[in-house]
C-alpha cells in the first residue's frame, strides 16, 4: 500500500499543475496609451464582458518602457502584462523621431536600456511579455527605424532589425532581466508573403510567435479561412513556440446580417480551439476606421457592439479560455 503513495502523489501533483494553466489566455488593448482613465476603461471593459482578462496589452514609447505602475496594477488584479514596446519617442507625434536601428546597434541607448532592464528585473515574476517593435514589415514608423522604406530592401531592413533585437535582448539578459518573454509579432502580410523570415532573430531570442490581423472592412470575413491566419499557423506551429494572436479586431456593422464583427469572433473562437499551439488571443478595443470609406456606416469600429459583444462574451467565458 505504502509503495502506491509516491505514485499517487505524483499523479495528484501533475493534475494540479495541469489545472493551474488555462488552455488559452485571453486579453485586450483598451483605450489609448496616454488616456489618464485607461485603467478605469480597462476595468469597465472587463465588467462588460463578465470576467477579468488574463493579459493587458499596453503600448509604451521608447523611453517610457516599462510602465512599472501598470505592471504592478495588473499583477494585483491577477493579470499578466504585455508591453508592446515602440521605437518612437512620442506616440502622439511620430514626426519627432525614433530610436533608429543603427543607433541601437552602435550602443547609443545602452545606458537607457540598462536602466530599463534594471526596472524590469526589480519587478521579479511572473514574467512580462514584451512585444518589441511589432509589425516590422508594414508599420510606417519603421521607415524611421531603418532609414528607408522597409519593403524597398527587405534583406537590409531585416538585418538591421535582427541586430537591434539581439543587442537589446543580450543587454537585458546580461543585466539579469530574465523575467521577460520576448514576442515576435509581424502583421498578417508578412506571414502570407514569407517576409517575416528576413526579420526573425532566431529561436534563442524569441519566446512567442504572434500575428496582428484584423477585418478592417464591413464585409463578412471568417477568421478561420483568412489567408494571414492560415499562413501564420502553417509557418509558426512547427517552430515549437507558443503562438498568440497579439492583436485582432473586426469592424461592427449593425445594419448587416450577419454582422462582420460577430462572424470574425465566432470563427476566431473555433479556430483557436482547433489549433492547439495558439495559447493567447488579444482583442483591440478601440474605435477603428473602415479600410474603405462608407458614408452609410453606423457601427462602432472595432469596439464591441451588439451581437459582436455577445460573441466575445461567449468566447471569454468558454472554459477553454478560462483561468483555472
UniProtKB/TrEMBL annotation:
Protein name: Glycosyl hydrolase
Transmembrane segments: none
Cited InterPro entries: GH (IPR017853), GH26_dom (IPR022790), Glyco_hydro_26 (IPR000805)
Alphabetical keyword list: Glycosidase, Hydrolase, Signal
Signal sequence interval, chain numbering: 1-20
PANTHER family per UniProt: GH26 DOMAIN-CONTAINING PROTEIN-RELATED, MANNAN ENDO-1,4-BETA-MANNOSIDASE E-RELATED
Active-site residues per Swiss-Prot or TrEMBL entry: 135, 247
Domain of life according to the entry: Bacteria
GO MF entries: hydrolase activity
Family to which the UniProt record says this protein belongs: Belongs to the glycosyl hydrolase 26 family.
Pfam families on file: Glyco_hydro_26 (PF02156)
The organism of origin for this protein: Ideonella lacteola
Span of domain GH26: 7-324
Amino acid at each position: 500500500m505504502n509503495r502506491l503513495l509516491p505514485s499517487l502523489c505524483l499523479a495528484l501533483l501533475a493534475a494540479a499543475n495541469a489545472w493551474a494553466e488555462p488552455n488559452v489566455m485571453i486579453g485586450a488593448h483598451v483605450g489609448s496609451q496616454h488616456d489618464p482613465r485607461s485603467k478605469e476603461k480597462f476595468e469597465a471593459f472587463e465588467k462588460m464582458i463578465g470576467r477579468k482578462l488574463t493579459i493587458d496589452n499596453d503600448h509604451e514609447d521608447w523611453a517610457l518602457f516599462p510602465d512599472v505602475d501598470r505592471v504592478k496594477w495588473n499583477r494585483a488584479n491577477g493579470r499578466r502584462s504585455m508591453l508592446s514596446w515602440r521605437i518612437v519617442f512620442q506616440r502622439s507625434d511620430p514626426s519627432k523621431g525614433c530610436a533608429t536601428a543603427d543607433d541601437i546597434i552602435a550602443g547609443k541607448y545602452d545606458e537607457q536600456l540598462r536602466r530599463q532592464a534594471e526596472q524590469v528585473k526589480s519587478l521579479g515574476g511572473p514574467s512580462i511579455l514584451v512585444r518589441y517593435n511589432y509589425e516590422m514589415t508594414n508599420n510606417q514608423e519603421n521607415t524611421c527605424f531603418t532609414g528607408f522604406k522597409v519593403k524597398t530592401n527587405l534583406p537590409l531592413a531585416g538585418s538591421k532589425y535582427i541586430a537591434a533585437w539581439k543587442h537589446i535582448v543580450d543587454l537585458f539578459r546580461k543585466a539579469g532581466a530574465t523575467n521577460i518573454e520576448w514576442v515576435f509579432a509581424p502583421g498578417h502580410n508578412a506571414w502570407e508573403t514569407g517576409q517575416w523570415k528576413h526579420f526573425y532573430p532566431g529561436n534563442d531570442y524569441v519566446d512567442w510567435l504572434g500575428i496582428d490581423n484584423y477585418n478592417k472592412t464591413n464585409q463578412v470575413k471568417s477568421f478561420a479561412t483568412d489567408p494571414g491566419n492560415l499562413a501564420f499557423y502553417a509557418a509558426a506551429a512547427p517552430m515549437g513556440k507558443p503562438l498568440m494572436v497579439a492583436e485582432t479586431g473586426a469592424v461592427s456593422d449593425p445594419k448587416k446580417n450577419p454582422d462582420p464583427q460577430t462572424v470574425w469572433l465566432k470563427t476566431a473562437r473555433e479556430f483557436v480551439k482547433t489549433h492547439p499551439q495558439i495559447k493567447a488571443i488579444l482583442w483591440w478595443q478601440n474605435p477603428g476606421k473602415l479600410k474603405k470609406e462608407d458614408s452609410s456606416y453606423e457601427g462602432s469600429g472595432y469596439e464591441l457592439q451588439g451581437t459582436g459583444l455577445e460573441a466575445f462574451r461567449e468566447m471569454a467565458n468558454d472554459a477553454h479560455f478560462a483561468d483555472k
